[in-house]
C-alpha cells in the first residue's frame, strides 16, 4: 500500500501513527498491518506499555521454537547477529527463509518493533551483570567523552547492554545529590516539569496559548498528565543535581502533596487501614502479573492519589514484609501478604 493509505489504515490501531517517521510507517505496514487486522477479527486490541508475564513467556516460546527450526545455537546469535561476524551471513539467510519477523511476533498483539526490542532486552547476556565497579564507572566516563551518545559502541566496549550503560551514565554524569531535596532543587524540578508539559500541550494544540493570550502561569492541564509518562531524562538534565529516578520519585511526592492538600494519608491508624485495604484489594483481583493490575483503580484505597504513589507503597510493603520476595512470583507475594501480614496488621489496628 502507498504511504497515505498505510497511515490511514494503521491509525485505527495506532492513533499517534502520523507522528511516526515515514520509513517506520512503511515497515509497520509490511510487518504489522495484516497482523493487527487478524487480531481485530478475534476481538483483540493492539497493546502498548509494559509487557505482561504472559507476553514475556510467549516471546521465549517463539524464540525457542525458531531456534529449533533453524538450528541456530542460541538466542544471542539470533538477536545480536552482529556480535558473530563469522556466522552473520548464514544466520541472516535463515531468518529470511524461516520468516523470523512473523515467528517472533506470533500471538502477541503489539507492534513488531516493540516485540523485537523486548526480546533483545530479555535475551541479552550483557543486560544483567550486577553493580558497576568504580573502575567500570571511570571507563564509562572516558568512553562517553570519546564517543558521546553512541551507546551501541560503548555497550560493546564495556560488555554491557546499551540500555544499561545509558542509564548508568545518566546517574553518574554529574555531582548527584543523594540527601534531602533543597528548596532550590524542588523549584528547578517543578519548573522543568512545567516546561515539558507546556511544550507537550503546545504540540497538541499549536494555537491554544497564542490565541488565548494567557499569562505564563495560566496553565490548565488534565490531572493524569501531571503524573503520566514524562521525559525524565530531559527533566533530569534541567534539574542538574539529581538523576532521573530521583526526579520521578520527588515529583510523585510533590503531586501527591498538592492533590491531598498536605494531609498525612499513610500515617498512624489511617496508614494501617490503607495497608489492610491495599492487600485485600490486590488479593481480590487475583492477577498473576503486576502489569495486569489497574493501579489507578487502587488509588482510592489510600486516598485521592497518583497511581505511582500506590505502586511505591506496595513496593515498600513487599520489601519490608515478604522474605525472599525477589524469588517469588507476584501472586505468591500477594498470597503471603494476605495470609501472613494481613492478620498482624488487623491486630495492630
UniProtKB/TrEMBL annotation:
<feature type="domain" description="HTH myb-type">
    <location>
        <begin position="124"/>
        <end position="177"/>
    </location>
</feature>
<dbReference type="GO" id="GO:0006363">
    <property type="term" value="P:termination of RNA polymerase I transcription"/>
</dbReference>
<dbReference type="InterPro" id="IPR053078">
    <property type="entry name" value="TTF1-like"/>
</dbReference>
<dbReference type="InterPro" id="IPR017930">
    <property type="entry name" value="Myb_dom"/>
</dbReference>
<dbReference type="GO" id="GO:0005730">
    <property type="term" value="C:nucleolus"/>
</dbReference>
<dbReference type="InterPro" id="IPR001005">
    <property type="entry name" value="SANT/Myb"/>
</dbReference>
<dbReference type="GO" id="GO:0003682">
    <property type="term" value="F:chromatin binding"/>
</dbReference>
<feature type="domain" description="Myb-like">
    <location>
        <begin position="173"/>
        <end position="255"/>
    </location>
</feature>
<protein>
    <submittedName>
        <fullName>TTF1 factor</fullName>
    </submittedName>
</protein>
<dbReference type="Pfam" id="PF13921">
    <property type="entry name" value="Myb_DNA-bind_6"/>
</dbReference>
<feature type="domain" description="Myb-like">
    <location>
        <begin position="124"/>
        <end position="172"/>
    </location>
</feature>
<dbReference type="InterPro" id="IPR009057">
    <property type="entry name" value="Homeodomain-like_sf"/>
</dbReference>
Amino acid at each position: 500500500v502507498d504511504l497515505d493509505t498505510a497511515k490511514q489504515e494503521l491509525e485505527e490501531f495506532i492513533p499517534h501513527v502520523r507522528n511516526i517517521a515515514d520509513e517506520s510507517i512503511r515497515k509497520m505496514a509490511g510487518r504489522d498491518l495484516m497482523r493487527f487486522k487478524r487480531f481485530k477479527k478475534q476481538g483483540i486490541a493492539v497493546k502498548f506499555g509494559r509487557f505482561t508475564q504472559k507476553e514475556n513467556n510467549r516471546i521465549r516460546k517463539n524464540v525457542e521454537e525458531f531456534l529449533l527450526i533453524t538450528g541456530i545455537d542460541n538466542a544471542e546469535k539470533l538477536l545480536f547477529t552482529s556480535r558473530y561476524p563469522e556466522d552473520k551471513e548464514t544466520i541472516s539467510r535463515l531468518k529470511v527463509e524461516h520468516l523470523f519477523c512473523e515467528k517472533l511476533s506470533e500471538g502477541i498483539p503489539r507492534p513488531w518493533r516493540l516485540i523485537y526490542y523486548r526480546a533483545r532486552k530479555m535475551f541479552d547476556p550483557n543486560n544483567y551483570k550486577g553493580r558497576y565497579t568504580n573502575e567500570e564507572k571511570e571507563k564509562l566516563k572516558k568512553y562517553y567523552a570519546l564517543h558521546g551518545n553512541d551507546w551501541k559502541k560503548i555497550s560493546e566496549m564495556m560488555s554491557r547492554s546499551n540500555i544499561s550503560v545509558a542509564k548508568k551514565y545518566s546517574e553518574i554524569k554529574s555531582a548527584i545529590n543523594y540527601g534531602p531535596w533543597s528548596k532550590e532543587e524542588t523549584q528547578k524540578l517543578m519548573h522543568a516539569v512545567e516546561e515539558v508539559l507546556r511544550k507537550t500541550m503546545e504540540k497538541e494544540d499549536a494555537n491554544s496559548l497564542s490565541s488565548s493570550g494567557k499569562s505564563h502561569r495560566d496553565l490548565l492541564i488534565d490531572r493524569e498528565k501531571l503524573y503520566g509518562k514524562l521525559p525524565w531524562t530531559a527533566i533530569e538534565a534541567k534539574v542538574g543535581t539529581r538523576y532521573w529516578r530521583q526526579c520521578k520519585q520527588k515529583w510523585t511526592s510533590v503531586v501527591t502533596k498538592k492533590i491531598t492538600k498536605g494531609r498525612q494519608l499513610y500515617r498512624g491508624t489511617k496508614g494501617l487501614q490503607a495497608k489492610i485495604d491495599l492487600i485485600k484489594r490486590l488479593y481480590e483481583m487475583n492477577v498473576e502479573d503486576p502489569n495486569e493490575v489497574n493501579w489507578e483503580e487502587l488509588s482510592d484505597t489510600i486516598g485521592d492519589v497518583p497511581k505511582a504513589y500506590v505502586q511505591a507503597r506496595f513496593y515498600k510493603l513487599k520489601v519490608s514484609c515478604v522474605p525472599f520476595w525477589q524469588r517469588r512470583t507476584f501472586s505468591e507475594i500477594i498470597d503471603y501478604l494476605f495470609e501472613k501480614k494481613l492478620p498482624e496488621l488487623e491486630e495492630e489496628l
